[in-house]
Automatic annotation (TrEMBL), chain A:
SUPFAM superfamilies: Nqo5-like. Keywords: Cell membrane, Membrane, NAD, Quinone, Translocase, Transport. Its EC number is 7.1.1.-. One of its GO terms (molecular function) is quinone binding. It is a peripheral membrane protein. This is NADH-quinone oxidoreductase subunit C. InterPro entries: NADH_DH_suC (IPR010218), NADH_quin_OxRdtase_su_C/D-like (IPR037232), NADH_UbQ_OxRdtase_30kDa_su (IPR001268), NADH_UbQ_OxRdtase_CS (IPR020396). It comes from Desulfosporosinus hippei DSM 8344. NDH-1 is composed of 14 different subunits. Subunits NuoB, C, D, E, F, and G constitute the peripheral sector of the complex.
From TrEMBL, chain B:
Keywords: Cell membrane, Membrane, NAD, Quinone, Translocase, Transport. Pfam families: Complex1_49kDa. InterPro entries: NADH_Q_OxRdtase_suD (IPR001135), NADH_UbQ_OxRdtase_49kDa_CS (IPR014029), NDH1_su_D/H (IPR022885), NiFe-Hase_large (IPR029014). This is NADH-quinone oxidoreductase subunit D. It is a peripheral membrane protein. Its EC number is 7.1.1.-. The gene is nuoD. Signal peptide: none annotated. The keyword Oxidoreductase does not apply. It is found in: Cell membrane. It comes from Desulfosporosinus hippei DSM 8344. It is an enzyme of class 7 (translocase).
């Protein structure tokens, strides 16, 4: 019942922002281009009867030729679930910050920046959160090169006579 | 000439500080003893779990989940294996579901006991600490009987449970359940009913309902701010819809309610375990799952109610034996965002109290 109502509002919203609606294991997924993201999040927050007004999670995903920023939305007062995916350009990963919609996006966006290098425009304090400040590279990108096992083995082998 | 302003002092607390619950560091800006600004520094325990997952098969990642919130490791196993099962469409046997409920709720009790103990310890209540840890040992013993380890139990598998509890487990569980009302009375009598403890915790660190919702806070911290939200009720996973229990909600919004609500939750957990022990059927504990776990192409977000809040796993599968992306939504990492906002304007000893009642576990915060 809720899902049907939600589906109608999501379709309306998708038509407004030129998005694609899919369904994955019973959850509605709305895919949009990065510039529309704030409009989508604000729209979802104010759906009549079935507001998706609670941000559960925000994370980056590396899809090869582009990045996705995935928002898991729901409500504390109903069963509605919505997943919003914003497609971000890989060469120039910039997207508007959701901290003005939910303050709780603060650390999550810092983490996505730390791990994927996605820049959130308008974030109050966009710094690395887990890695140290002068760390180079973005670890969760697929093209991030970790130390190969051969190199590690060389380091761990004792030199003769040591 | 009057002096009404002191020089700002920047104080570094942690990572090696007894009240920092692991490796948490914060830079505290003080004016006299009053906090003007807090800058939390994370990452001292960062092991790159999400990156590690991408080079391990689905089954190989289960022991890693134990190391997230290591005070309630069965819950982390549970969230992860259920996410994979949802992705694969596996149904697990009834007995395994009941055993998962029993171990999950035992983990909740153990985790809350640690929270109660460490809150008491941070308020310099040494004796209360030893009482709660004494009782938690009995849960660790029950883990040990079944799984062989006491902290990182690694008890669940994709498709069921790794081990059947031995015969001596059931009397041990029964005697533990019988003793809990007395335990809770002891904790209350020795610490929470104490005037000094109340003075330190009551009306300290107010987190209003609106702030909590805006900051994506979940778990007991949210419920202590008067929001009736529990994943077990909102989106019943496993077989929680068969059990009769209440979700404790308190409206004090302060540190005291954030701690005492955990005592209420222990009472509800006891109720759930009693019903599970009464109704548990016989039968196998593992479903028939293929030796090589290969979920179809797709994605899933699965959440469970961890003792500390909502723990979610977002898995993107590309049809191979390893996940293409595994995202962990840690509860306390997000709950921690309230600390700089709530602690502003309080004295430095109140910051310790506020941080203690958040019940942060750095294994989960730093991943």
């Amino acid at each position: 019942m809720e899902n049907k109502k939600l589906s109608r509002y999501v379709d309306e919203l998708a038509a407004r922002v030129n998005g694609v609606v899919e369904e994955s294991l019973g959850v509605l997924v709305l895919k949009v281009q990065a510039p529309y993201i704030i409009e989508v999040l604000r729209g979802a927050k104010e759906f009549p009867f079935v507001p998706c007004d609670f941000l559960h999670d925000l994370c980056g995903v590396d899809c090869g030729d582009h990045f996705e920023v995935v928002y898991q939305l729901s409500s504390l007062h109903g069963p509605q679930l919505l997943r919003v995916k914003a497609i971000v350009d890989r060469e120039n990963p910039v997207i508007d910050s959701a901290t003005h919609v939910w303050e709780g996006a603060n650390y999550l966006e810092r983490e996505a920046y730390d791990m994927f290098g996605i820049k959130f425009k308008g974030h109050p304090n966009l710094k690395r959160i887990y890695m140290w400040d002068d760390f180079e590279g973005y670890p969760l990108r697929k093209d991030y090169v970790t130390e190969p096992i051969e190199v590690r083995n060389i380091v761990r082998t004792r030199i003769e006579g040591e | 000439m009057s002096i009404d302003k002191t020089q700002e002092l920047v104080l570094n607390m942690g990572p090696q500080h007894p009240s920092m619950h692991g490796l948490f560091r914060m830079v505290v800006h003080l004016e006299g003893e009053t906090v003007t600004h807090i800058d939390p520094k994370l990452g001292y325990l960062h092991r790159g779990m999400e990156k590690l997952a991408e080079s391990r098969t689905y089954s190989q990642f289960i022991p890693y989940t134990d190391r997230l919130d290591y005070l309630a490791s069965p819950h982390n196993n549970w969230a992860y294996v259920q996410a994979v099962e949802k992705l694969m469409g596996v149904e697990i046997p009834e007995r395994a579901e009941y055993l998962r409920i029993i171990f999950g709720e035992l983990a909740r009790i153990a985790s809350h006991q640690v929270c109660i103990a460490s809150t008491a310890l941070d308020m310099a209540g040494w004796s209360a600490w030893s009482y709660a840890f004494r009782d938690r040992e009995r849960i660790c013993d029950m883990y040990e009987m079944t799984a062989g380890s006491r902290l990182t139990v690694n008890i669940m598998r994709i498709g069921g449970m790794s081990a059947e509890p031995p015969e001596e487990f059931w009397p041990a569980l029964q005697s533990f359940l019988d003793d809990t009302p007395e335990m809770l009375e002891e904790y209350y009598g020795i610490f929470f009913g104490n005037e000094i403890a109340m003075g330190r915790l009551k009306n300290v660190g107010i987190l209003t309902k609106e702030m909590a919702e805006n900051l994506s806070i979940t778990g007991p911290v949210l419920r202590a701010s008067g929001v009736d939200f529990d994943v077990r009720k909102a989106e019943p996973y496993s077989i929680y819809d068969r059990f009769d229990f209440k979700v404790p909600v308190r409206t004090g919004c302060d540190s005291y309610d954030r701690t005492i609500i955990r005592m209420d939750e222990i009472v509800e957990s006891i109720k759930i375990i009693k019903q599970a022990v009464r109704d548990i059927p016989g039968g196998p504990i593992m479903a028939k799952v293929p030796k090589v776990i290969k979920p179809p192409v797709g994605e899933v977000y699965h959440r469970v109610e961890n003792p500390k809040g909502e723990l979610g796993f977002y898995i993107v599968s590309d049809g191979t034996t390893k996940p293409s992306r595994l995202r962990i939504r840690p509860a306390t990492f997000i709950n921690l965002q309230m600390l700089p906002i709530v602690a502003k304007g309080w004295k430095i000893q109140d910051v310790v109290a506020i941080f203690a009642t958040l019940d942060a576990v750095l294994g989960e915060v730093d991943k």
